[in-house]
Hints:
Elements (H helix, E strand, L loop, with lengths): L1 E2 L1 H18 L10 E2 L2 E8 L13 E3 L15 E7 L10 H7 L1 E2 L4 E4 L3 E5 L13 E2 L10 E9 L8 E10 L2 E6 L7 H6 L7 E7 L6 E4 L4 E3 L5 E9 L5 E9 L18 E2 L6 E2 L1 H8 L3 E2 L5 E2 L16 E9 L4 E19 L5 E3 L3 E12 L7 E9 L5 E3 L1 E6 L3
Parallel strand pairs: 4-7
Antiparallel strand pairs: 1-9, 2-3, 3-28, 5-6, 5-7, 5-10, 8-17, 10-16, 10-21, 11-14, 11-15, 11-17, 12-13, 12-16, 17-20, 18-19, 22-23, 23-24, 23-25, 23-26, 26-27, 26-28
Amino acid sequence: MELDEGRAFMETKGIFLALLLCLPVGITGCLVQEGDYGQEEGTIVDVVPPIAPDPGSLVCNPFENGAQPQDRSQGVLANLFYLDSSQPHYKKAKDYVTHGHPVAEVSMFFNQINVPTRPFDRGFTTQTGTTIQTPEGDTLYEYFGIQFDGRIQLGPEDSEGLYQFALLSDDGSVLELDLTGQGLSSSAAQDSGSTSDPWTVHIDNDGDHPTKMKCGASPIQLNRDSKIPFRLSYYQGPRYHISVMVLWRPWNGSAADSECNKQGNSRYFDYTQEPPEPTSVYQGLLARGWRVLNPNNYSLPVTIDQNPCNEEAPTIIEYGLLDVTSSSITMGWTTDIESTSQVFWTNLNTGDTGETTLDLSMVKEHSTVVSGLQPNSVYKLVAVSGSRSGKTALSPEVTVRTSR
Length: 404
């Protein structure tokens, strides 16, 4: 699997140039002299921040434009699988997971599994803005598989009791649950050395088909402290439409519903609208107690502590001068969360600009040396720190004169 590294480089270069153009050449305020050097705080620079730590390894909520960050422990891990040109176009979700090639360098995180029927041809975009491609250089938007992994739980608004689950998907999907009480995700079960298979197929909605509803035949008990491990295997066949949704409703004593086993790409949503508009059939599901599991109903697998896609931008505090010589300036700062370190500078005497190498070490206490500077020259410096999710923060400007 290859990423469009050239595009990433050009985007990084463009962002860097934007940053340099936004830095003013003049000095704001009065320089505080300390012998041959000094510093002052200037105004906050209104710039586009540079790309942060390894964002090419993350795809965040790929089907949800403008998804709002949730609690750090909330979310669903998803792994992406592709087929090479020698493989057949499988028609079972498990075949994609079993025989497909994992995109090992990229992890996807979802806030919820809620993708109404829609056209899909844009592929998967990482936090750098690069698009995942097949080995042949094609955008991966058909004949791929996804395995979702997490735990299902009650939200604050949900009552304890029995629940019936259902899947809406185009193409196939299979929902498996671990009801053994082990509380392990698939990867944790492997790490524990367990030889028994705790997974039970709860809903099989597999195969090539338009958006189809498949209902669970038996209810699942959910208590306030329940965290039921699940894995959902899904595959997308031909490119035309995509849909995958997990629904539930309080158990009403019967598994029957008029929509179970019904299908049609325009049956539940008008996919010509953006976002897709629910039809009267889908509204009928809601009226009968069905609803999509919301973000509060998901927590991460036990093997993952925090969802990097729900990490906010760091806050930079205590940014200031640590040391200065005739050819270098050392800046230090603190961030409220672990993040990367980099400093952008402008020589206010000559207009020259530059930046330090991005330090990908995730730390809260930062110290960065800006070297190769001119003696007795005034520099404006801005620190940048980025979280694991790719969100960045800028420090205020600090102006420093190098010694003679």
